[in-house]
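Crash report, auto-generated. Payload:
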Amino acid sequence: MKALYFAWLRERVGKSEEEIAPPAGVATVGDLIAWLSAKDETYAHAFEKKSVIRAAIDHAHVSHDAKIAGAREIAFFPPMTGG
Amino acid sequence: MNAVAKPIIRVQREDFNAAAETEALRQGRADIGALISFVGLCRDEGGTLEALEIEHYGAMAKAEIERVAGDALARWPLLGLTIVHRYGLIEAGGRIVLVAAAATHRGEAFAAANFLMDYLKTRAPFWKRAHLVGGALGDWVEPKSADDEAAARWN
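Recovered output after restart:
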């Protein structure tokens, strides 16, 4: 699946998107954040404030409890500041 | 009762003409009694801010604004609705967002425009970053808890 990062999360991860292949045990958005955070210091720093990280699966907002099975695109971003 | 118009929603880099957008909602009909037009502008923050860089999630932004518009149309019998949200670099004084809502009576039009702005701020995937006077890159704009509270009052 494709992972996308926006705003300061994109800057901390150091890229705007990448292909990821989480193992079968990674079931939810929260699991995916934990799995990414365990990759290295860069991801750990980017995702350290877990409670503020928002996520969208296939262009719709989801909670950290949402299942990721079948997702084509998962985006991570800070709280939005549009309008 | 007239059928609710399909909302016009655009996400664009270019500026928009608020007067022309609201006129297009009104033109050729006589059933509208209230037309509210809200334009969000880029403040200069007391002369310290030169511009805002607005990052957006292109594949999601229009879809999310459509969902928010759908929520508004389910709550109020609007006769017309136009939402334009810009992205990219917007200089101080420039236009960022337009919400224009038309209804039979002003109550619905005011409420819908208010609701739409509250929800766009907390749900539409846009992120602002300050460019300061003098050329320095400023911080990402922090979300305001007041915005979350404003959105929550509609629940």
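Post-recovery validation: Residues 64 and 80 of chain B are 18 Å apart (CA to CA).
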